[in-house]
């Protein structure tokens, strides 16, 4: 097992967990996603998760889970040593960032615009918003994914923006998760923030190269990372 891999922790819930579907229409190449509402999680159930959480705080919060859940989880993670990585949206994103102490946050451009309360399609406005967030100390690193427009990294060293890597797109399922997973792993294994950001972009790109819910493949990630560092 990889030295940074954690053994799986299983938590049982009284209600059914959410199952999301991605449908690829072969005749048109279009992709359709069906994302139903998640289960209502009881307080006794979500509290058991806090003891198992380590560093990566990811996903939308189910019904019944309070908006400050990730704040509590981040406090627990930091008390045990790990840095907190946040990948969520909406009120949970805003409240957790406002509490401070996040090491890395990775919103999509749409999620970042919602957080800042303004359109950020203009490059200068996007850069200014990213600088303001890191300057306030809410997070040490901000990585904004922008689909076919690439990604942006903001931290104390400044701004790094990389264009998207041109590949044949099969599906967008899991691209964001692959990005934050690869960037987190690279940081955990001692890579610089800029190299970790490139690994994130490489993994997100590798994920869109695979059909349906198939995620990135390591060989593709390494090959695309090499293209970014040439």
Characterization of the model:
This protein has helices at residues 43-50, 69-80, 90-99, 109-116, 123-135, 175-188, 193-208, 218-228, and strands at residues 21-24, 31-34, 56-58, 85-87, 102-105, 139-145, 151-155, 158-162. It is of the alpha/beta class and 230 residues long. The chain is 40% helix and 15% strand. The two termini are 31 Å apart. α6 (175-188) packs antiparallel against α7. The strands form two sheets. Strands 3-4-5-6-7-8 form a six-stranded mixed β-sheet, with helices on both faces. It has a two-stranded antiparallel ribbon with strand order 1-2. Mean pLDDT is 85; it is low at 1-5. The protein has a single domain (21-228), classed as Ribokinase (UDP-N-acetylmuramoyl-L-alanine:D-glutamate ligase), CATH 3.40.1190. The protein is built from eight helices and eight strands, in the order ββαβαβαβααβββααα.
